[in-house]
Amino acid sequence: MVQAILKPSLDERYSEGEFWTSKQRQAHSIHYSVSYRASFKPELPSFFFSEFLKKKGSVVFDPFGGRGTTAIQANLEGHYAIHNDINPLSVFLAKSRRTIPSIDSLNHILDKMDLTAKTREDEMDEKLLAFYHKDTLKELKNLKQICSQDNSPEMDFVKMIALSRLHGHSKGFFSVYSFPQVSIPAEQQKKNNQKKGIEPDYRPIVPRIKSKLKRDLSEALPPFFHEFSSNNQYYLSDVRKLDPIPSNSADLVVTSPPFLDKVNYQTDNWIRHWFLDIPEEQTDGISVLSSVREWTEFMRDTLRATSRVVKKGGYIVVEVGEVKKGKTIIPLDDFVLEAGMSVGLDWSRTYINTQKFTKLSNCWKVSNNEKGTNSNRCVVLQKI
Ligand SMILES: C[S@@+](CC[C@H](N)C(=O)[O-])C[C@H]1O[C@@H](n2cnc3c(N)ncnc32)[C@H](O)[C@@H]1O
Predict the structure, then answer these.
(1) Ligand 1 pocket test, candidate residues 32, 85, 283, 373, most atoms within 8 A of CB
(2) What value does the mean pLDDT of the chain take?
């Protein structure tokens, strides 16, 4: 029961501190090729690798893989990864970085690319034209078509970079001024354009992809990266039905579930889904849970399925934030514990990573607290 769980000062299994840096963009540049709602910093999995992995070449599993932070960090540190997510977008974002092509090969492809062919009008145009100039949209449609016929690692990498440039604030994005991580509804974008007195201007896409590539591939990869990434496994499954993943195959899980109904991964990604041709029904299963009871049951099923994949003695790290509902802060870590213990996992410890707010959040006059989470609370469970 939740009431039985002792609070930090009363139980030595709680550790509080700044376990990893609060500075932005300190990890390898390849992590930053895509942004993703509620992704964690690469330093988080890295911290737990050093806490719980005894040797190189271990297997790390993330059942809610998102943009692939855990998998990529595992490969960067000489471990194998198992990445799972229910959304094909997530599997694409992770898998497209399994092979990191050379910048020369990518520039070569981009130099040869002809995006000028006439394209067919379709029912999505009206919505998309709220974001894109008609000539930018023509280029995007051509790129989409070319990418759909070529699944080489190079083309997938170009496609992944294009996904990251679809919309945002700066001139480096393909769209008129818009939100970077969330695809807002077209109606809202139209209203924003009117309010700001702006219209989509022509933004050629190839130079934007090239300059993003230059930044993301600026740092050398460790020489062993591909040795590990080429053996990664990728799954597109509901977390409660992980049957395709072999039992006792992972040494460590580092993961972060959807926090109640804070993010809607389906609607927030509608432009990315369009670009990847992911039909709406393929993202219907993404869990959006509104009550704590429902969420705890979901976590119980998640932990039952996940622990089957973990080796005996292995650890499962679940990161959650403190979610605000009205004026109440819900300590989701308590409910992770309840769920974990109910499926026979042992509570090892809980890390509360407190971070000073960054300059960026101050200048936007928001604190993570107001956004719903203010610290990373990482519950560590052990399969006994
Ligand atoms: C908080 S995000 C994970 C972010 C990840 N840690 C990262 O750094 O990118 C939660 C993820 O859970 C996925 N998800 C939601 N419901 C799911 C389900 N039932 N089964 C598997 N994945 C699910 C979402 O698609 C989303 O990618």
Answers:
(1) 85
(2) 92
Render pLDDT for 158-196 as a digit per residue (tens, 0 to 9): 999 999 999 999 999 999 999 998 999 999 999 999 999
Confidence (pLDDT) at 362 = 41
Measured in degrees and rounded to the nearest 5, phi and psi for residue 266 equal -80, -60
Same domain, 197 and 177: yes
Claim to verify: residue 375 and residue 228 sit in the same structural domain: yes
Please give the order of strands across the beta sheet that includes 80-84. Answer: 14-17, 346-353, 376-382, 310-320, 250-255, 59-62, 80-84, 233-235
Distance 267 CA to ligand 1 centre (A): 14
- Closest atom of ligand 1 to CA, residue 298: 19
- Give the model's confidence band at 314: pLDDT under 50 very low, under 70 low, under 90 confident, else very high: very high
> Which range is least confidently modeled, 1-15, 148-162, 236-250, 326-340?
1-15
Supply the residue whose CA is at minimum distance from atom 8 of ligand 1: 39
And the tokens for 159? Answer: 């496609």
251 and 360 part of one domain: yes
Pocket of ligand 1 (CB under 6 A): 36, 38-40, 64, 66-67, 69, 85-87, 90, 238-239, 256, 258, 265, 286-287
Tell me the β-bridge partners of 329: 324
